[in-house]
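> Could you send the Related to YPD1-two-component phosphorelay intermediate prediction when you get a chance?

Sure thing. Input:
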Amino acid sequence: MLDRAKDMVDHDVFLQLLELDEEGETEFLEGIATDWFEDAQKTLTGMDKLLKDKNLDEFSKRAHYLKGSSAQLGMKKLSATCAKLQHYGEQWDDEKDESRKTNLSEDEALALIPPMFKRAKKEYKAAEAWLRRYLKPHDDGSGSPSNSDGEAEEPKTPKADLPEVEPLAKKGDAPSPTKSTEKK
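Output:
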């Protein structure tokens, strides 16, 4: 799970969001995530219709919106895929040469969008599942998580995938004595 999370999540952004919550709480993150789940699902549904209608301009705008909202939550893989969809909707690509744009015809763009859009939907589902697991570890109903053998185990959340972060020091606070910067 660590490798998948590294590819999917911008840990610096995600950790900054975690720092906005009280120690041990996820209320702020839960609110943002819930809003993102709803917005992303509506946006993807709208993009489906726009693609069927061949409305590339509006499709591009929705891809841009989803790119930004995903990036704000740290979902970097989905954000990158949405950037590609935005470009295709604007009828250009930089796949062959990142230093310059290649103009695409409407037909070329419409041929490139469906597989990339399918990928975006899959990445959204993976990001949503990751966030939901993070916010509420799986419980088998017994009150304690268990593995496939039915043995109790520690709850597994993506928090284990994130590096530990010291809370931000408040103005006027002395440096923490627990962390030494001296080399031994």
